[in-house]
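FYI - complex with fe (ii) ion, inputs then prediction.
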Amino acid sequence: MMSRRELIGSSIGLAAFSVLPAPPAMAAIPDIVPVPDSRLAKAATALMDSGGSPEWADHCRRAYQFGALLMQKAGVHRYDRELAYLSSILHDLALTPKYPGPEEFPIRGARLAGEFLSDQGLGAADVQLVQYAIRYHLDIGITDYRPEVRIVPTGSLCDLTGAGLHLLDRRQIQAILDYAPRHEFKKEFIRSSNGERRKLPLAPSSCLGLLLQPAVLAAPFES
Ligand SMILES: [Fe+2]
């Protein structure tokens, strides 16, 4: 009788190995939505990351991802990906510790983003569009804006409250959470919105932040 070692080394052993059933094909793991691979997109991402808040930077990353997927679900396919990304990744820049100021954060964020993108060489009309998207990203009820503007409230609200999440594939959601983790985003939202309310108690953005707090705490995310 052949030893086990001889059997493995013989042609019979190799043939026997080759006819073993193939393992079941693994289901494809969904990828994240491609981020525009441009100089401006990289520069804007670096600016957002420089703000000192991984919570808000990753919220902005998820806002682009969720926004792009929900736009796709809504049949919106034709828009400028780079402008949509610039609007999304910079929309909460003014909530990061590095960029405090006395104005409402969407106004300050639009100004900061406009100055930065102009310095980076983006054309005036495109700068204006990104500024508009950031300035009005809390106007969640308005739907007739250009897609590059609408993507911000769509994606941001999905990440804040889970609105629209039921339309997305669970594995796709997980891929986005792996790409841009939540950290302790719910706690950060409460801390940040309370801070904005102390600074500007009657500002519309402060009131909306207060109204959103219960929905953010109840959102279908762990943290
Ligand atoms: Fe946001």
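The two ends are 62 Å apart (CA to CA). The CA atoms of residues 27 and 171 lie 10 Å apart.
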